[in-house]
Amino acid sequence: MAAVEATHWWYAATRALLQQLVGPALAPGGCFLDAGGGTGATGAWMGEQGTLVASDALPAALSLYARAHPSLAGAAAADVQALPFPDRSFDAVLCVTVLCHRSIADPAVAVAELARVTRPGGLVVLMEPGVRRLRRAHDRVTHSARRFSVGDLRAAAVAAGLEVSRATGAYSFLVPPAAAKTLLERGRSTSDLDRHGSGLGGLLGGTAAVERRLLRRVSLPAGLSVVVVARRP
User: Fold this and answer.
1) Using an 8 Å Cβ cutoff, are 62 and 54 in contact?
2) Per-residue pLDDT tens for 79-103?
């Protein structure tokens, strides 16, 4: 992640997607948490709008995060299921591709913890792999134990007492090729980050930009990723 976050098309497209969906709702000068943020590939941009804190289970990831993103104000090595922050600490909490991990025994517990550290009126943003049955070689490399439908992720937010303002699929155009790759890579372990960093010469990034324009007007019922934006009452 640290090696390719600045160059891989998926990270660039995901940052653009999250900024579109969430950026305008962030309180200027607020305090934001990148929960399970890894090396900062998808959440470090929040540091441009306020005070950014990151957590991750791997201290090495946080060291890389701080090295690549000087805007990081604080970091805590922690399990997202037991965050070391007081109640109501953050104006927004972002959690990207964490609930899918095999170390998360119960995603509902993790979402409740994210809600706990969010201030009333603040945002909780979840983004996870979509299409339940589409377990691929990339999932094995990244230790992913589960995928989510839009409804799954929405239900997890609601169960944590959050009010969902947006629930949508993303990267819907990747579902057919991902399904084909699943068949071709059966039994293998390989990461999507190891190839096609340019997105087939910009084709995938361009298609993602078209989809983002569509997402300004409508929500998609499914996608290779699913996103929920919710607010703590």
Assistant:
1) yes
2) 999 999 999 999 999 999 999 999 9
Please say whether the dihedral angle defined by the alpha carbons of residues 197, 200, 206 and 207, taken in this order, is positive or negative: negative
Whether the per-residue pLDDT at 138 is higher than 80: the answer is no
End-to-end CA distance of the chain: 34
* Residue among 217, 107, 224, 114 at smallest CA distance from 166: 217
**Cβ partners under 8 Å of residue 116, min gap 6:** 83, 87
Are 225 and 127 in contact by the 8 Å Cβ rule? The answer is yes
Residue 92: phi and psi, rounded to 5, are -155, 145
Domains of the chain and any CATH numbers: 9-231 (3.40.50.150)
Quote the CA–CA distance of 28 and 111 in Å, as a whole number: 24
Q: Which residues have C-beta within 8 Å of that of residue 223, sequence separation ≥ 6?
A: 130, 131, 168, 169, 170, 171, 172, 174, 175
**What contacts 195, CB < 8 A, 6 or more positions away?**
none
Measure the CA dihedral 176/179/185/186, to 10°: -160
Question: What are the tens digits of pLDDT across the range 36-66?
Answer: 999 999 999 999 999 999 999 999 999 999 9
